[in-house]
Design a protein that fits this description.
The complex is a heterodimer of chains A (113) and B (116). In chain A, strands 2, 4, 5, 6, 9, 10 and 11 form a seven-stranded mixed beta sheet that branches. A four-stranded antiparallel beta sheet of chain A has the order 1-3-8-7, with no helix packed on it. Chain A is 0% helix and 55% strand. By secondary structure, chain A is mostly beta strands. Chain A starts with a strand and ends with a strand. Chain B has 116 residues and is an all-beta fold. The radius of gyration of chain B is 14 Å and the shape is globular. The termini of chain B are far apart. The chains are: A mainly beta (113), B mainly beta (116). Chains A and B meet through strand 5, strand 9 and strand 10 of A and strand 5, strand 6 and strand 11 of B.
Chain lengths: 113, 116
Amino acid sequence: DAGVIQSPRHEVTEMGQEVTLRCKPISGHDYLFWYRQTMMRGLELLIYFNNNVPIDDSGMPEDRFSAKMPNASFSTLKIQPSEPRDSAVYFCASSLGRRNEQFFGPGTRLTVL
Amino acid sequence: AQKITQTQPGMFVQEKEAVTLDCTYDTSDPSYGLFWYKQPSSGEMIFLIYQGSYDQQNATEGRYSLNFQKARKSANLVISASQLGDSAMYFCAMSFLNTGFQKLVFGTGTRLLVSP
């Protein structure tokens, strides 16, 4: 079975540009999560969905960040406009059911110049 | 407040030896889950083991076991017979009843180096 798929794996962009990160969860999983990892703040949950519906976006840092899940097999995290402090590794994860372990994608390393 | 503490920024162990990675937590939630994840240098997060707060027995998964001491609020990871491929960052994480068991809170991690 394919794991969680994220694209792109690496993204380098200039400040002010729009960035879109993509995620395909494991088939059949009903929860999807977006995390950000930085040296300063560690791993932080940004937002999560249940059955394509956003449940908790309290971790989204600013209005510049938005996430969508149009269907069960696809989600996007968009940053517009991007800033250098958004540089981080962004992980997507999915799980089946409330109490089960989350399976992480390989991450997208974002660099904003 | 919910807090996870990993006090060991780095640990060294020789191949084939056992190693314990510490994790303590603070929560008033009566029900919670404890997780350990491994992050090798390639960057992906790999799930290792899970323990529920009401589980009577300590969880084990192959060479990984979780030494859960509820009264001490600790959930240490024990890796037996270390291998060179175990060199990685290890994160302790928790989920809580009051957030529906879905929001994972991570510790700061411990870097493990296994030497030949």
